[in-house]
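Sorry to interrupt, but I need a hand with the structure work. I would like you to pick a protein and set down its sequence and fold. Please put the record directly below this note.
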Amino acid sequence: MDMQRVINFSGGKTSALMTILLKPTNDDIVLFTDTGREHPLTYKFIDDFEINEGIRVHKIAYEGGYEAMVRKGKFLPNQQMRICTTELKIKTAKRWLRDQGIQKFESYIGFRADEERRVKGYKQYYKKVTPKFPLYDMGIKKEDVQQYWLSKKYTLNVPSILGNCDLCFLKGKGAIITILQ
């Protein structure tokens, strides 16, 4: 039997395209790990994706969300301690998968060909997981993703400056000031 496939669906256009290209079967798990800080239109896009593509997305979240994580850790995530991705996404997904009886799996991650730094710098978070980067391997870049969604009857309507989590420190000071204005 092949190893379990877990397709990481961030709620964005890139991971949605990756999911479509992977043609998930009923045995695959498409997993959206909600930070609780997503733009409201992200949730609409996920719903539209499920309806239009006929692909089920398992939606899970850290109990209590971002605020509970901050209270537990007693500090805000920052450049040196990026606990939000680790706690809200990676560990939450691992716990949920373990509860489903899945400990060894292939983890499909939507890094593109123009994100080589992210692929090369990817940190292996657990031993029984084989990371896969299909968009990188296929040579798909940001402009390919954008072009693809022009042909669809639905899309994610969140301006790219807003990205995934709202006011994430990784956006940079200039982008955060622009968003707040």
